[in-house]
Amino acid sequence: KIAMTLGERTYYKYVRNFGFGQKLGIDLPGEEAGLLKPVEKWSGRTLVTIAMGQEIGTTLIQMGAAYCAIANGGILLLPRVVSGMYNNGQLVKAVPVRPVRRVVSEKTAKRLTQCLMAVVESDSGTGTLARISGVTVAGKTGTAQKIDPVSHRYVNGKYVASFAGFFPAESPKLLCMVILDEPQGAYYGGTTAGPVFKEAVTRILHSQNLSY
Whole-model pTM? Predict the structure, then answer.
């Protein structure tokens, strides 16, 4: 409904502004741009299928950057592999944070964060298995069908399950994403990747080396 309200051109602009369908320019070789057709090549159903996660291909770094843009109040940042280079504990060269563009207003980012919090913290959410005692998580489950590289059609029974979440939701410090390629048995992101997220983040929070 939201995509149809925005219309093709506006919706495409937002998808691009969040960093999808293009290289972000990270400081590692081999970055992929993902898949996002220009509006001129859309079919009559592309608008609604992209809105539900089909007819688009994304990388983990693109997804992470998009979630971080929501977490930080609406600004897309250029991902960096390291925050700086050190020699014997002394900073030799800092790698600064580089903002790319504002993609949504602070108000919209806050509203989206509230929606993501409900995914985990509400009993009716799909990410309840990612809940962590004492920490409010804003996150989203993902269950994507895989495409046959030969037929280019979705394959029955093959999925990519995921969960992405940032915390504490009120003042985000960290983002964690879990991707499971072709999980066996249960395949929904909330039931497979969600518990892995919970275990990983719990260990991070209890780490003596964790520093904000």
Answer: 0.91
